[in-house]
């Protein structure tokens, strides 16, 4: 019976609450090396939305393949990127987690009440090779817990 | 009636098993659609070879699409229209994509539009083995597919890439 209880708890815990994720790729360097194992807390945003600086898992068609990105702008804010520097509502954003910056440029976008803006930490790569942009709230599965 | 904790756990386990089986198997049509997509991934991953083998593989892959299929890869690209165009492009890309492994995850199937019509959402992953620099890579893209059933076979009539991050 204990084994059964443990099996049920494990399935529930790692199937719905703490989603195991193996990062792949270089877009979150240096914080997340490719191949690192981590967990997504799917209850993190049960009572509140993501905060700026949170590293979140963003689902594609479902929870088995996700983007891991950092939230840099919140719903209702305006964002632009000039020469690699992110500006929120016209003010430069302090991003201590970014170690290198290429000269990315993104014209100003206004986020709706249901959108966040997510980017990886590795801004040294070509912008064209890096998936980033606006994301709907319902695509954010949860935050990475380590 | 008082339920003890082991009984609650057993009941939960039973409910979970039923849910997992239901989620896994679905209806006969859903199984057919899923199995068709699994077969497509298998054929895409089959080494192409050259000459007749390449022609045979291209014909096999073409069989998963309708004659008038439209493949929309998103902003900045023109839609690919027609099975022959698609198969021709796939054959030309063969050399560049032969070391890539394609898989479909999170396949969701719905049948809301009528008989013989299915809407599918999935994540297509393209994994490349390590190149000369030792760097392996994986690229994932979300797609929605419109599939139609004719002569007992499910075929893709439209495939559209979704921009998860816009």
According to DSSP, the number of beta strands of chain A is: 11
Q: What fraction of residues of chain B sit in β-strands?
A: 25-35%
Task: Give the structural class of chain B.
Answer: alpha+beta
Shape of chain A: globular
Description:
The complex is a heterodimer of chains A (146) and B (166). With 146 residues, chain A is mainly beta. Chain A has 1 helix and 11 strands. Chain A has one helix at residues 2-17; strands spanning 18-22, 37-41, 55-59, 66-73, 78-82, 85-88, 91-92, 106-110, 115-119, 133-136, 140-144. Chain A has a 7-stranded antiparallel β-sheet. Chain A has a 4-stranded antiparallel β-sheet with strand order 7-6-5-8, with no helix packed on it. In chain A, strand 5 (78-82) and strand 6 form a beta hairpin. The two termini of chain A are 32 Å apart. In chain A, 32% of the residues are buried. The model of chain A has no long low-confidence stretch (mean pLDDT 94). Chain B has 166 residues and is α+β, with helices and mostly antiparallel strands. Chain B is 39% helix and 34% strand. Chain B has 4 helices and 6 strands, in the order αααββαββββ. Chain B has helices spanning 5-25, 28-45, 52-62, 83-97; strands spanning 65-72, 80-81, 100-110, 117-128, 137-150, 153-162. In chain B, strands 2-1-6-5-4-3 form a 6-stranded mixed β-sheet, with helices on one face. In chain B, strand 4 and strand 5 (137-150) form a beta hairpin. The longest helix of chain B has 21 residues, at 5-25. Classes of the chains: A mainly beta (146), B alpha+beta (166). Chains A and B meet through helix 1 and strand 10 of A and helix 1, strand 3, strand 4 and strand 5 of B.
In brief:
The complex is a heterodimer of chains A (146) and B (166). Chain A is mainly beta and 146 residues long. Chain A is 11% helix and 36% strand.
Topology:
The complex is a heterodimer of chains A (146) and B (166).
Chain A: H1 2-17, E1 18-22, E2 37-41, E3 55-59, E4 66-73, E5 78-82, E6 85-88, E7 91-92, E8 106-110, E9 115-119, E10 133-136, E11 140-144
Antiparallel strand pairs in A: 1-2, 2-11, 3-4, 3-11, 4-9, 5-6, 5-8, 6-7, 9-10
Chain B: H1 5-25, H2 28-45, H3 52-62, E1 65-72, E2 80-81, H4 83-97, E3 100-110, E4 117-128, E5 137-150, E6 153-162
Parallel strand pairs in B: 1-6
Antiparallel strand pairs in B: 1-2, 3-4, 4-5, 5-6
């Amino acid at each position: 019976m204990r084994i059964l209880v443990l099996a049920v708890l494990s399935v529930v815990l790692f199937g719905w609450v703490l989603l195991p994720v193996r990062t792949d790729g270089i877009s979150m360097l240096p914080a997340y090396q490719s191949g690192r194992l981590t967990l997504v807390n799917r209850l993190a945003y049960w009572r509140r939305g993501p905060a700026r600086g949170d590293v979140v898992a963003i689902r594609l068609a479902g929870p088995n393949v996700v983007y891991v990105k950092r939230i840099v702008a919140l719903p209702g804010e305006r964002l632009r990127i000039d020469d690699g520097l992110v500006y929120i509502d016209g003010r430069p954003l302090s991003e201590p987690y970014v170690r290198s910056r290429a000269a990315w440029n993104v014209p100003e976008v206004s986020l709706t009440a249901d959108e966040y803006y997510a980017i990886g930490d590795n801004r040294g790569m070509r912008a064209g090779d890096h998936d980033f942009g606006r994301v709907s709230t319902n695509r954010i599965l949860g935050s990475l817990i380590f | 009636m008082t339920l003890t904790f082991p009984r609650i756990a057993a009941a939960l386990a039973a409910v979970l098993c039923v849910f997992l089986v239901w989620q896994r198997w679905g209806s006969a049509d859903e199984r057919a659609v899923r199995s068709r997509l699994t077969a497509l991934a298998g054929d895409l991953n089959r080494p192409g070879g050259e000459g007749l083998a390449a022609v045979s593989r291209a014909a096999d892959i073409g069989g998963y699409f309708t004659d008038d299929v439209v493949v929309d890869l998103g902003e900045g690209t023109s839609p690919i229209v027609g099975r022959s165009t698609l198969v021709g492009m796939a054959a030309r890309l063969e050399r560049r994509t032969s070391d890539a492994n394609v898989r479909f995850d999170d396949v969701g199937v719905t049948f809301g539009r009528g008989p013989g019509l299915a809407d599918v959402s999935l994540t297509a992953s393209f994994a490349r083995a390590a190149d000369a620099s030792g760097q392996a890579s994986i690229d994932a893209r979300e797609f929605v597919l419109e599939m139609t059933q004719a002569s007992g076979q499910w075929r893709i009539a439209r495939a559209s890439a979704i921009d998860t991050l816009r």
